[in-house]
Amino acid sequence: MSVKSKFCVGLFLSATISSTVLADGTWEVLSVADGVTGANINGVKNAVWVPNQFNNPVIDANGIVTFRSQIAGPGITNTGATANHIVVVRGAGAPWTVVLRNNAGVPGNVPADALISRTASPNNSIPSTNINLTGDGGSIVSAYMAGPGITAGTNDTAQWFIPSSGSPVLLAQGRDICPGTAGAQYPANMTAATGTRVNNAGESLFAMTLSGGDTVTANNSAIVMIRSGPDALIVRKGDVAPGFAPLTITPDSFGMFLNGTNYLFSGKLVGSGITTANDSVYCTNAFATGPYRIFAREGDPIPGLKGLTIANTSSLTFVQNPISADGTITFVATLGGSATAVNNGAVMTERNGVFSILIRKGDAIPGITDSSDPNFNGKVFSSPNSSGQTVNNNGLYAFQGIFMNPDGSSISSPAPATYVGARKADGTLFTICRQTDPVPGLAGWSFSSLNGSTSICASDNGCVVFLGSIVKNDGSETGAALMAWDEVGGLRMLAKQSSLAASPFTPTGDTIFTGTPINQLTLIGSTGNNGSGQSTGFSSSGWLVLRAGDTTNQFYSIARIRVEPGASCPADLNGDGLVDSADLGALLSGWGTASPDLDGNGTVDSADLGTLLSAWGQCN
User: Fold this and answer.
1) Closest Cα partner for 375 from 398, 401, 400, 405?
2) Cβ distance 463 to 434 under 8 Å?
3) Cα angle at 322 between 319 and 327, to 5 degrees?
4) 237 Cβ neighbours under 8 A, 6+ residues apart
5) Cα 545 to Cα 560: distance, rounded to the nearest angstrom
6) Mind giving me the DSSP string for 404-423?
7) Which residues pair with 389 in a beta bridge?
8) Cβ(619)–Cβ(578) under 8 Å?
9) SS3 of 497, please?
10) Residue ranges of the alpha helices (H) in 246-394?
11) Residue 158 backbone phi and psi in degrees, to 5
């Protein structure tokens, strides 16, 4: 492989990336980490991004990106108590605005004169977990501190809300008093965790262990709504369970979700007659007459679905972003009662006590059950991958699915057994792509197993984005394709990472991100959530952000693109609704390369030019 120098990479990015376009929009490379290219941060001179230190970026509905990284350069050190090499920045590209920096003042100077610092381990002063984003561009960040009145290991951690406009607000600090208690204290560590759920008001759900005050073993954990005003105690261990008195509840420290004012959490019942077969409960405040209601319990009958129970052999699992703005909850349940081995699983919804089944084990799948291909014909739905499913605020359910034989037996290898599908709010099912299908826009490649972490995301405008494993048909290369789908525009490829299948595992993927072929794409799916109930990597309005990398040459980047529904005019390369001279220029600039390839043969050539000229004018 021809390797570009770091100097040439910088020239490539500044000269050509703006003309690299796709039907959905234009890939914009916002930052490059190669150890040479300037970071261009307001107030920080001569800094460069340290390679392979970009953490997952997040993006809001307006395309504004926030991310954490390390920097290097004159006056920047990464050791000792004065380390100042970690930053959280925000913007739509350079110059970036600093949100946090170690050994700089805390947001809003609250607590007064405190610094972002951790003498014991400076590299961890700003946690590397995802930034927690609100739907309108605010963020909740957390860090360790030092300064007047701050004691390490006691009150040296905090969370702040940084609104999209206005002044930062201190939300919580280690050893704050928990509301609704007699002096019980928050834990010393109040740094926000990966996947913390945040709403547009800058509120977040936080599970914690309590100490001090009235705390005893029977009430030493809680879930609290952390916010700029007085915090609110949602539930405390030992509270009487609504509708199940005198049983009490112990909240789980995981599985909390928030969308607007609606929240969702799980817990365990404690008391007489409770066993591991009937102790798990699932709670929400949506349509509750009190603070919250228990909407499901393992082992209990499912209202409205005669003969079916939530099996006591398994708990519910939630999809990504499982509670919508209208209070609808989407979950996966193992079914008991009259269910058999061939139909004892379902993806379901609950809204104000009404349960519905979206898709059930044993159901026919369009494009699979009725396929003429013997690899698929007659196969039925088995289950979704537990982490590969999501739902948007308009009821579109997108999932990574597994199918089986009608008798319930698994598909024998090497026959394909995985696919990506979607279900509209009106009940219509779609098969988006199947294992072994050809990859659109990538001649000679097919999808390999789609059972794994696809980081599937869905915007409120009906677009689905996911990473799918791919393989070259001759077996010489493997990788992953970043795919987009909507009902009108269909399935299309946005980007590709790949490497040779045999050592040396040389990158062979797209060159639009670093100037060299990439072998790494990171899309945020289930690990982030914003105030509109959607992924922090793919906004409700269709802005997508990701990390890309060439790990062989140590070049890394952060890039964004706008994914639009109805991208059925592939020759409209800049997405302005017209096929005109701008699109022609973009195609000619990519002549002889792999992008923008309109017919999927792997090369921009005369056939692509003919396709563009035949579509000249207004897109239909």
Assistant:
1) 405
2) no
3) 155
4) 218, 219, 220, 221, 222, 248, 249, 250, 251
5) 4
6) E-TTSPPPPTTS--EEEEEE
7) 399
8) yes
9) strand
10) none
11) -160, 160
Rounded to the nearest 5°, which phi and psi values hold at 486?
Answer: -145, 165
pLDDT in tens, 213-227: 999 999 999 999 999
Summarised one tens digit per residue, pLDDT across range 166-181 is 899 999 999 999 999 9
Long-range CB contact pairs, 347-353, < 8 A, 24+: 347/319, 347/384, 347/389, 347/397, 347/399, 348/302, 350/295, 350/296, 351/286, 351/287, 351/326, 351/327, 352/286, 352/287, 352/327, 353/287, 353/295, 353/303
Query: Which residue is listed with tokens 């977990």?
Result: 129
Q: Which amino acid is at 180?
A: G
Cα separation of 310 and 329, whole Å? 15
Each residue's pLDDT tens digit, 402-427: 999 999 999 987 789 999 999 999 99
Banded pLDDT at 461 (limits 50, 70, 90)? confident
Exposure pattern of 403-418 as b/e (b: 16+ CB <10 Å)? bbbeeeeebeeeebbb
What type of residue is 407?
A: D
Lowest-pLDDT choice from 42-51, 231-240, 377-386 = 377-386
Check: CB of residue 547 under 8 Å from CB of residue 520.
yes
User: Higher-confidence residue: 431 or 531?
Assistant: 431
Place of tokens 């952060």: 558
Tokens of 376: 């698929």
Look at 434 and 254; give whichever has higher pLDDT.
434
Cβ-contact 537, 523 below 8 angstroms: yes
Amino acid at 376: F
Note whether 331 and 383 are within 8 A (CB).
Answer: no
Strands (DSSP E) found in 92-168: 97-101, 115-116, 132-133, 139-146, 157-162
Q: How far apart are CA 470 and CA 273, in angstroms?
A: 51
